[in-house]
Amino acid sequence: MVNTLFLPELREMLAFEQESELREFCVALNPGRTAEFMEGLDDDEMWRVLQFAEPDRRAEIFSYFDEARQLSMLASEPAAETAVLIEEIPEDDRVDLIQGLPSEAVDEILKLLPASERRNIERLRSYAEGTAGALMTTEVAKLGERLTAVEALDELGRQASDLETIYYLYVVDDNNLLRGIVSTRQLVSSIKNKSRTLGEMMETDVVVALAGEDQESVAEKVERFNLLAIPVIDSGRQLLGIITHDDVIDVVREELTEDAQRIAAVAPLEGDFLQIGLMVLSYKRGLWLTILFFAALLTAFALRHYEDELAVHGWLVWFIPLIISSGGNSGSQSATLVITAMTGGEVKLTDLPKVLSREVCVSLLLGGFLSLIGFAVAIFVAPSILAATVIPATLLAVVFCGCLCGVTLPIMFKRLGLDPALMSNPFVAGIVDILGIVIYINVARLVLG
Amino acid sequence: MVNTLFLPELREMLAFEQESELREFCVALNPGRTAEFMEGLDDDEMWRVLQFAEPDRRAEIFSYFDEARQLSMLASEPAAETAVLIEEIPEDDRVDLIQGLPSEAVDEILKLLPASERRNIERLRSYAEGTAGALMTTEVAKLGERLTAVEALDELGRQASDLETIYYLYVVDDNNLLRGIVSTRQLVSSIKNKSRTLGEMMETDVVVALAGEDQESVAEKVERFNLLAIPVIDSGRQLLGIITHDDVIDVVREELTEDAQRIAAVAPLEGDFLQIGLMVLSYKRGLWLTILFFAALLTAFALRHYEDELAVHGWLVWFIPLIISSGGNSGSQSATLVITAMTGGEVKLTDLPKVLSREVCVSLLLGGFLSLIGFAVAIFVAPSILAATVIPATLLAVVFCGCLCGVTLPIMFKRLGLDPALMSNPFVAGIVDILGIVIYINVARLVLG
């Protein structure tokens, strides 16, 4: 919901160029809230209001707009003003933004930036998306190990306004090699002790990320070790930058959303659902739909193969959708539970026997219960009570097979080094569909002779 | 994978009671890594190694074991030792742990704790699970607004060892009402300015959580405003505690995992997949499976209703699974995309028209493509080319309806104030199944006369 509370006032202030009121508006609230109140303005109005904020405040407010707004402003507003803004945006965010701009706009903006900033942006852009290097910021508190706590605080005071985060200090030697880290908390606890140096306080066993490391592996480390930030180093242990906790939350969200999409047989979107091109979206969905379609075609051939049985016992046809959907639903429940449990680290490859034995119990319980309902219905429809037993017997077998496929396939996929979420629910369902029909007709043959 | 590198050495040290080596082992590495190397020990060995660490270090190492290990140690080791450990565990974590212990063990441990700690635990336990109160810690840096930066740093130095996080300082008045916050970064930048007080530096427009607020709403605020911690207040604006970023990552992970489970029609597990009781698990799955089963029963009645048509045109039966699975798969793709986009904030209720118009295009593209394949197959199976057109016409209509149901139902559910993920894929598929059969037979009637 767009917050429209201040819109009339803001527009009036702009119309009458009420400079002091607009300045006041930009500082009175916290920047996130200021951005919220501006959301209803159009791009041009937003941009004009932003010009009344100090450059660092302006960048902060700007960071709370959604990406589409940010990009459309950066692409259309005067390059001189956008360059000033870009300079103030934290490094890790501005590189992401620049990746989203048309290349002419990027060239124009880069030309207007100081050489050092330009080089910095170029370097960060060179890391592949999805790696630690692409997530990091180089604005990091680096200090020498011979400083005392008080000296370090003074130095930090000088650097603090340029840094995104100062919750850890990174101790480096003269060659910029990472030697250890000191948390601000340790530093603050040590200010009474005049002679203790960073070298004496620092933790030397530091959890680090390599620049080329996959972002999911980085997020896992940050979560496991409860870090606020993780240092990024190159293969020679040179400190390149840090990745901060807010980027890690984004990675976790992205990773789990992609899982959910893969589970539903959509290739991960890598973009905003409402922004992504329709042809790209159709392709990402169509690929899997087509594969599943061919799997489903097999059911058509299976049914054709059993043509004679179905002609004699016409009532069997009525239960086909019921049977395959029961198998498919229970299978996709199992697959989703195993996939989410593996992503969350609850289930490991070695747990397969335990998972299977538990699943056998659950599937028999579920299948047994559905069989009872199915039998009650079938009695009224089938020509005899004996004939009606085909339905519960099939349901029990289909739910059992569906559940076991559902838990086994994702674990097998993971063991093969593939993404278990690729073993999507519809895929499991596709396999269970065919199994279901084969089981159904063979049970019917057995019972009905 | 359990790290077994140090296991023989550790066991030897325990056997020969090599005190200094064990002490050294507990401090040499960072606590997370120490925990990793201990994972292969059994509970008793682990506990004995832990006794060689200083109490605060012991609690830190302990925090990296998985919850099942933590609980089994706390429940079985001597109560006096567990009470010492519990005292050192951060408040928000220890309350969670205590909730998992048998109530006799809890009573025994609580009796051994100092009265203030006991009261604190009792108070935190009184907040319902899933609320801000249950996530918070009361170990928070509270300072008066008249302190200068240097005085505040001194005070913080005294408090720091007891606090979980000092990345924001909370400024309160004499009645413990929250007046504002100062980040450590602002504080450190201000140490050169001797006279500036916290009251002058503080941000007064603070993003807060109410103690009873739902944890997902808290996580959303923390993500939106990029916070490291959020203060929790009561309705009178008294500062109760803070929620730290690591708990927020857990909430995001929990929320998205529950979404994925709901999408697959499983009531959220609220527990470890391998630990949860089989009856509970069967109930959580069986509830939805049964509902879906009744939905699928309707398809049986629909098919029975069309008995005569199916008897005359037997080949129509072969395509039943293909048609309903095409509708179901495309519908569950749409539903998953919309649900994940709503969870991620990309799609709002007001976006329905835009979502629908995009979906119309995508569904016609997808349906059209599948129709072509379907037609190619049907030509070989159907008695005539005219008859074969039943298949592509039905596929197009079914995919179209499946996609539109898939995007509309979750948005409608959200508008009704319900969880859109409840409008699970199998539910969408269930509706699309019946629609599919009705469409199929009616198209067939129209074409075949």
TrEMBL record, chains A, B:
Q: What Gene3D superfamilies would the database entry show?
A: CBS-domain, MgtE N-terminal domain-like, SLC41 divalent cation transporters, integral membrane domain
Task: Give me the segments passing through the membrane.
Answer: 286-303, 315-339, 360-385, 391-413, 425-448
Compartment(s) of residence? Cell membrane; Membrane
The protein's topology relative to the membrane is:
Multi-pass membrane protein
Assign the protein's first listed, main location to one coarse class.
membrane
Q: Where is the CBS domain?
A: 136-198, 202-258
- Which domain of life does the protein's organism represent? Bacteria
Instruction: Please provide the record's keywords in A-Z order.
Output: CBS domain, Cell membrane, Magnesium, Membrane, Metal-binding, Transmembrane, Transmembrane helix, Transport
- Cleavable signal peptide: none
* SMART domains per record: CBS (SM00116), MgtE_N (SM00924)
Similarity remark: Belongs to the SLC41A transporter family.
What is the role of the protein in this entry? Acts as a magnesium transporter.
What's the protein name?
Magnesium transporter MgtE
Organism of origin is Rhodopirellula sallentina SM41
